Amino acid sequence: MNEIKIFCPATIANISCGFDVLGVALDAVGDEMIVRKVSEKGIRITKLTGQDLPLETEKNVAGVAGLAFLEKSDYDGGFEIEIYKKIKAGSGIGSSAASSTGAVWAMNELLDGPFSKLDLVKFAMEGERLASGVAHADNVAPALFGGFTLVRSYEPLDIIEINTPSELYATVIHPQIEVKTSDSRSVLRTNITLAQGIKQWGNVGGLVAGLFTSDYDLIGRSLVDHIVEPIRSILIPGFDEVKSGALKAGALGCGISGSGPSIFAFSKGETAAKKVAESMKNVYKNIGIDYDVHVSKINVEGVRMLDV
Ligand code: ADP
After folding, report:
1. Which residues carry out catalysis?
2. For 180-224, how does the pLDDT look when each residue is reduced to its tens digit (9 = 90+)?
């Protein structure tokens, strides 16, 4: 096999109380890539459609992640990569993670799997370092493993796969506004009180337990963020209305996806998730902001091969 075509899922990170640690992969939205083995050494991005992003290897997260892979590999050829972007960069649903994860996953398949999934997460994290300055794993891990993942620790890197209840659906709305990453980062406080910590880890434990036991009510009760959401949501126009409307429409919970501006909600069943989508759309129709909306099953497989 010299060439493969793959689907690279969009992901929701910073799931409410699971700020910086909990993420999940989506099924209805993602990029496609074609990766090809070539004799010429190195990585070349030969095609990129859908978004205005750099083709230079060192400036594209797929290239940077690919180089991190090659550095640890004893393969002495190279790869060509074509990227068909469907996920908008900077939307808050893991656009860069889809490209960096897809690149290293496909390269590993083409070389018959020399690396473990954990190794691949580490290579893809180098792409995240290029995109945001921080080599975080909370989008990359669900993109690679599928389903919900917990980044329990970075030193050493420890990723825990969490069960996905079969009727869980996500609704994501991306209001077409720019929230600068620097702004969404600079509003964060670096200290929390013990009382805030206690509430937050109570909810993280509750959410993980609810996912493992498919207890939808517990999932809903636990999708609460006392620390980051109250501050970051100020940067997203309409956030409070979107959230209260989504909960009224039947969502289990609702929060900021990644560092925004996308907003996600989880629901039990597709019908409920679609109703939530309608309520979210109405808020932005009324404010006069354009949006993209996705209703998606949870992707439990992660990056996958497509027929060429
Ligand atoms: P989000 O997670 O909010 O969707 P990202 O954090 O993924 O957005 O980052 C997008 C940043 O990464 C942009 O600055 C973009 O220019 C850069 N970037 C470089 N290569 C890619 C790529 N292949 N796909 C997406 N973004 C890329």
Report:
1. 128, 181
2. 877 888 899 889 999 999 999 999 999 999 999 999 999 999 999
Are 257 and 13 contacting, i.e. CB atoms less than 8 angstroms apart? yes
Q: Return the structure tokens found at 25.
A: 């992969």
Cβ–ligand 1 contact at 144 (below 6 Å): no
In the predicted model, is pLDDT for residue 8 greater than 90? yes
Looking at the CA of residue 97, tell me the nearest atom of ligand 1: 7
Domains, the chain, ordered by start: 3-163+300-306 (3.30.230.10), 168-297 (3.30.70.890)
**Residue 178: CB atoms within 10 Å:** 8
Q: What is the distance between the alpha carbons of residues 65 and 252, in angstroms, rounded to a whole number?
A: 36
Residue type at position 229: E
Query: Which tokens hold the place of 107?
Result: 């390269």
Q: What is the pLDDT of residues 103-135, one digit of tens each?
A: 999 999 999 999 999 999 999 999 999 999 999
- Residues with Cβ < 8 Å from 170, sequence gap 6 or more? 12, 24, 26, 264, 265, 266, 267, 273, 294, 295, 296, 297, 298
Q: Is the CB of 263 under 6 A from ligand 1?
A: no
DSSP label at 88? P
Q: Which residue has the tokens 């937050």?
A: 200
